[in-house]
Amino acid sequence: MDQLCELDELDNPISILYVEDSTDDILFIEIYLKKVFGAQFTLVAVHSVGEAKRVLYQKCFDLVLLDLSLPDAGGLMGLQSLLVSFPYQAIVVITGMDDVRLGLQAVKLGAQDYLTKGHYTSDTVLRVIRYAVERNRIATQLMKMAHQDPLTGLHNRSGFMNHLKTILPQSQRRNYNIALLYIDLDNFKIINDTLGHEVGDHYLRSISKIFKASTRASDFLARLGGDEFTFIIQFDEHNSEEPLTVAQNVIKALEHPIKIGDGQSIRGACSIGIALWDHSVGSGTAADWQNHSLELINRADTAMYQAKQVNGSSYQFYDEALAHKATEKQAFLRGLRNAQQQGEFQLFYQPIYCSRKSKLIATEVMMRWLSQERGTLDPGSALNQLGDHELIISLGNWIIYESCGQFRRWLDDGLMEPESWVSLDISPAHFLNPALADQIYKVLHEHQLPTHHLRLELAESILMKEAAIKQLRQLKEVGISIAIDHFGTGYSSMRYLKTNAVDSLIIDRSYVQNYLHNRESQSSTRAMVRFGQTLGKSIVAEGIDSEALAAALSELGCDYLQGAYFGTPASAEQIGN
């Protein structure tokens, strides 16, 4: 078991496990220990290496005294076996009078020191045992520092990898299975960016305590870095439900609010991927076990990303179909990142017409990926589903900068009216970024573009989030106008629809396109238009694909019309022409 045991101080009784098949030798060494340490030691004797392992799995000892002439593991075999299972255990070997060279070989393999039968003296026993314990204590402390996460006190990535590659071959020998739980905290980046790194660190420490309380003593818990954690769980065929139970316990424990100071609290959430390791699978060299470890990690990671597709805390077991799907998504993400670096993105603009003036009044920006391998794609919805917030924000900032610059050029060329605007569909992840308002202000200032020329389109459901309301106020203070996109397909906060925080409602195309032929769509659309007019909001109807539909929606009272009838998305040059 590749774990670090805390050693008692040398002033406290030293605990010793003596592995010796001779009762006389056990009594003999006990006499010497009493001479040297008095009552300041405890001795447990076993008669074989196999028995020693069973004891060591249950209890930590300061020192193991190991005879090298045991019936079940003669010579250096017993030492090698113990070091594989307990690499941090202090071991002093005991050799026969004619086996001094064997003792030296044992030290080279990893034993702390050796004693020779028949050559015991009080000074020798005291020196060897004390030095062995002290050297191992220092080595253990250094190893612990190397394998411990300083923020949470959990094992770190190095400790996790070391334990995993050790426990897999052990599971095969001891006939138990392994489950790896890969855990990613939901929305941690938003917490960190919004509330600060100090609160983020406090949140991680609190989460770590919750994880510890949700697992068994035999489970191995590590923080890989950032907001990623792993559990390694041992179970046999009679307890196959253990991985699921642990995952459910973790999710349930996170339902309780976590206090972060000043009377504030956060409700935690996480996504858990679970990969199982059958002890009957795998064998070979150390390199083979390293590959098995990496394979298990990749499977758990794949399952975790699938769990992230579900809103709220959830878990997902790995399977091959999910793996294939995840591989495709990862390839898509890599392609998007490369496309950004290689300049394969292009902005297109769809006209928005004013029904009263019968002329172009605005444009909506749409990004397209001109991929050499995949053709022309709209990556927006797929990118939001994949959840790469860093890439979403990076591309969103690029769209804001480029579209505002283009609109400034249109104004300078007299191609847009003074009351015209450019409309951007902004993702929830980008909208919740605390730096968004400052970013927009800087872009508008650089392009000398008045704020009324920019409108942001938001998903209806985002008004249900408290963090979004704060962002909404900041943007309104700057002077940015806000439109609710796909209105009628989600849930909105009536409280904020009734205020000046929202300027416009965009009726979803699913209602508009069925307006002429479906009574239910007609009544729903009329109700939404009347509702918006009552609140003093301008109304946009999207999905207009015919002259008859344009006339009907204009007569109904829609202020602005958008759709293929007025023009499909076109390049900046085409719009200018």
From TrEMBL:
Keywords tagged on the record: Phosphoprotein
Family matches, as InterPro entries: Biofilm_reg_signaling, CheY-like_superfamily, EAL_dom, EAL_sf, GGDEF_dom, Nucleotide_cyclase, Rev_trsase/Diguanyl_cyclase, Sig_transdc_resp-reg_receiver
Taxonomic superkingdom: Bacteria
Stretches assigned to the EAL domain: 329-577
Location of the GGDEF domain: 176-320
SMART domains according to UniProt: EAL (SM00052), GGDEF (SM00267), REC (SM00448)
Pfam families associated with the record: EAL, GGDEF, Response_reg
GO terms of biological process kind: phosphorelay signal transduction system
Residue ranges of every copy of the Response regulatory domain listed in the record: 15-132
Residues that bear 4-aspartylphosphate: D67
Full protein name: PAS/PAC sensor-containing signal transduction diguanylate cyclase/phosphodiesterase
Record organism: Oleiphilus messinensis
